[in-house]
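Risk register update: the risk of archive-format incompatibility is retired. Evidence:
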Amino acid sequence: MSTSAPNSELFVTKGILPENLPPVFTTRNVWAELSIFGSVYTITRTSVGDPAVFNASKRGGQRRMFSIPHPAFIRDQALFFEKHWPDLSSLMQSSDGSASKPVFGIEGPRHVRIMSHSDLPRLRLRKFSRFKFCLITDVSRFFPSIYTHSIPWAINGKAASKIDPNANSATIFGNRLDFILRQSQSKQTIGIAIGPDTSKVVSEIIMASVDQSFVNRSGKIKPIFVRHVDDYWIAGNTHEECEKHLQNLRLALKEFELDINETKTKIVSTKLVFGEDWPFSFDKEIVDSLRGHGSNKNEALAILSNIVDRATVTSDDGIIRHAIRKIDENRLWSSDWEILEHFLAQCAVQFPHSFDYVARVVAWRLRTSKDVDVALWRDVAILTINQNASIGHDSEVIWALWLMKELGAKIPKESTDHILLNSGALTLCFLSHFCAKRLTTDRKLKQKLWACVSGNAFAGSFWPLTLEMIHLGIGNPLWMKEVANPSLRRLHELKASIIDWSARPRVFDEDEPDGGNDGDDEPDFAIEDYGADYGDYDDEDNEEGGKTVADPATDDFLRDLGLLDLPETPEVSPPGTLPSPPSAQPGTELSTTKPGKWKLLRRRNYDPKSF
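Archived output:
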């Protein structure tokens, strides 16, 4: 279900943490402590913080650094959106080429949702079918290079904003958002946090203004283009036309202190932008071999081996994630668990980007009383921690810790020493729960965790760690003596928490994709649907995330071509636009289980390119 307007509570409860975290992480209990401040901004000149960082894996061996500001900063940004949404919405709706206009969800794991990558090829086909060439480009290091002062430029105009920089200006109200963002990152003006839903809205505000400038520079004939966050596809009928578009876009970006990513800029035939290369050929082979349709009992092993070989040769661990998901969606884990368990173990060891999927499958089997080699998975989890912790690979370590929790195993001192060496605050705050529950072997771990904290205990880059340790009653008493703004102190003073140790894997809390679960209360699958924080499959600078948004216009177009199995689309908002309130749209709830995706894609709604 979606709503037409932003909601401060949902930004805080659904839009702060990176989405692909173990299910124990949640901010749903944080809002109760911050709602006391009502509709008043709480961030002042003395409110200065630093975001916690989370080093996550990406497809192809790359990394992404997520940032997690203190919830008080997110709350004030969300409050700004609420107060000024009519003006902000008008600005974003002005961009005809944007495919990343935010839709605000009420249900589901995130508040902000945008069109998924898997929907872009058909959108490009619809818009570019009459053109011969396409300019492909993006913004260089987009989120890390955003100049916060450019936010009021986008909202209120550059010239007027330079004259009136007052954060409390009633006229240049965009200054307030600029101010909140700077205060959340030690007053720095370069870059904004990667990951929070608020950043997705801020980025769209800026890029909608870039689009306006680009169109205005193009003269009487408006360019035809698709933009998804900072990725551009611009149509043209000659190379010269595309080159002119590139120059106009470069100048438009320069107005906002942004620049073209020259290494990813190219002009290609439009026939190359209507689809993506993906090894769908493996899908049927995996399913048939594990269902016993093959002629050889070793066929499944051979196919799994080929998948590993292809992922290794192409350096594409996304293939491994896709294969695991394909096995899961077809409920094939019990068909040959003796082989599949060791296939998963090799995936975890050789392709760490797949570890979260592997951990989900093992935990699901444990909780549904199915066979699991506990000793094997304890060894794999400890190996993963020891190999990844000291180099700061938080996502692999945090999922390995969660698997150890599900196994009921203690963390050895050697492993906790590795974690302490170079891990981010989210990983350390999870480890503090192991410490409090005596699930580690290091008797001095509490003091070692204290020593990890630097900066302000309430709002510095280790705020999740200090919050959890105070919540658990094992915090350093000196932390509470530090000075901080009331809204930044409040969570610690009330011993709030962002970890629910008792939380089950999310598949135990969601409905079966086909509407049933074979008559029992246990899920038949291990991996839940989630958004696309990891959604860029070939772009290291695309940090948008977001959940899939329905695209009725494209569905209608593809239905006419006979490429889509869907009933007639009801009258709903165009792709990426802000819908009317749910009461005005019966039957149009955004759902991960609605039919009508590409015939080649799985029924459960996920983007294979997000792996």
